[in-house]
Specification:
Blueprint: H1 8-16, E1 19-22, H2 35-42, E2 44-54, E3 57-67, H3 75-116, E4 123-125, E5 131-134, H4 136-142, H5 152-159, H6 163-178
Antiparallel strand pairs: 1-2, 2-3, 4-5
């Protein structure tokens, strides 16, 4: 891990340039900070470094290092370093996406288990007012399955067979939804 405090010019150059090609890395202003602790002890004279960027953030560096007499880097070598950095960046993006997908899948499964095993009746409805889930307790309490009540209209018709009562319940329910689900009062009447 390269710390900004240890190599400020080097990291600043990596942020500003797509790659650093240093013929004489031990004296180049951008890379000389690495001379005493890294370049000289290993005999590295020339470096070609390309930053690995993901969503604008520098997440790593592809380093090509030369030992021996200082050398000039050819344009095709510079292109190669940049291409490798781009491939690594795409791999990082793919791994992060896969991890996010797996985390989402695990979260959805935990949510589904929570809903399914809740000690009270729960239903989940899409924006088009079709049910996507009725948990076991919902079925035990109300006696309906998804086949009986595929959407809110079927639910209200089954649960509130009297048209006037149904209209009042639907109006209260829709007001509650419009208010952000803050909770509406529904008067329960004995039949």
């Amino acid at each position: 891990v390269l710390k900004t405090a240890d190599f400020p010019r080097y990291l600043q150059a990596l942020h500003a340039e797509s790659r650093i090609h240093a013929h004489d890395a031990q004296t180049d202003r951008r890379t000389s900070e690495k001379a005493a602790g890294y370049l000289r002890p290993l005999g590295i004279t020339s470096i070609l470094d390309a930053g690995i960027r993901v969503e604008g953030e520098l997440v790593g560096v592809v380093c090509l290092e030369h030992i021996g007499e200082p050398r000039q880097w050819h344009p095709d070598e510079e292109s190669f370093a940049s291409t490798v950095a781009a491939i690594v960046a795409q791999t990082v993006v793919s791994v992060r996406r896969r991890q996010a997908e797996e985390a989402l899948k695990e979260s959805e499964e935990r949510f589904r288990r929570l809903v399914e095993n809740a000690p009270f009746g729960l239903s989940l409805m899409r924006a088009d007012r079709r049910f996507v889930l009725l948990n076991r307790q919902f079925g035990a309490i109300f006696g309906y399955t998804m086949a009986d009540i595929p959407d809110k209209d079927a639910w209200f018709a089954q649960a509130y067979p009297a048209p006037d009562c149904r209209a009042q319940v639907i109006a209260t329910w829709e007001e509650d939804l419009a208010a952000g689900g803050s909770g509406g009062e529904i008067e329960v009447r004995e039949s």
